[in-house]
Amino acid sequence: MSDTVKHSLLFAFVGLLILLEGSTTFGGIFSGSWNSALVILNMGLISAIMALGVNLQWGFAGLFNVGIMGFTALGGLAVVLVSTNPTPGAFAAGGMGILMALVMGALTVVGAVAIYKFMKPGLARTLVLLAVLIVGFFVYRAIFDPSVEAVEAINPALEGNLGGLGLPVLLAWPAGGLLAAGAAWLIGKTALGLRSDYLAIATLGIAEIIISILKNEDWLSRGVKNVVGLPRPVPYEVDLQNDPSFVERAASFGLDPVEGSTIFVKLGYSILFTVVLLALLWMAQMALRSPWGRMMRAIRDNEVAAEAMGKDVTRRHLQIFVLGSAICGLAGAMMTTLDSQLTPGTYNPLRFTFLIWVMVIVGGSGNNFGAVLGGMLIWFFWIKVEPMGIELIKLLTTFMADDNWLKGHLIENASHMRLFTMGLILLLVLRFSPRGLIPEK
Amino acid sequence: MELLNALVAFTNFVGVPAIAYGSQLAIGALGVTLVYSVLRFSNFAHGDTMAFGTMVTILFTWWFQSMGISFGPLPTALLALPLGIAVTMLLVLITDRTVYSFYREQKAKPVVFVMVSLGVMFMMNGLVRFIIGPGDQRFSDGERFIIKARAFKKMTGLDEGLAIKTSQGITVVTAIVVVALLFWFLNKTRTGKSMRAYSDNEDLALLSGINPERVVMYTWLIVATLATIAGVLYGLDKSFKPFTYFQLLLPIFASAIVGGLGSPIGAIAGGFIIAFSEVMITYAWKKVATYVLPESMAPDGLVQLLSTDYKFAVSFAILIIVLLFKPTGIFKGKSV
Question: Model pTM?
Answer without folding.
Answer: 0.91
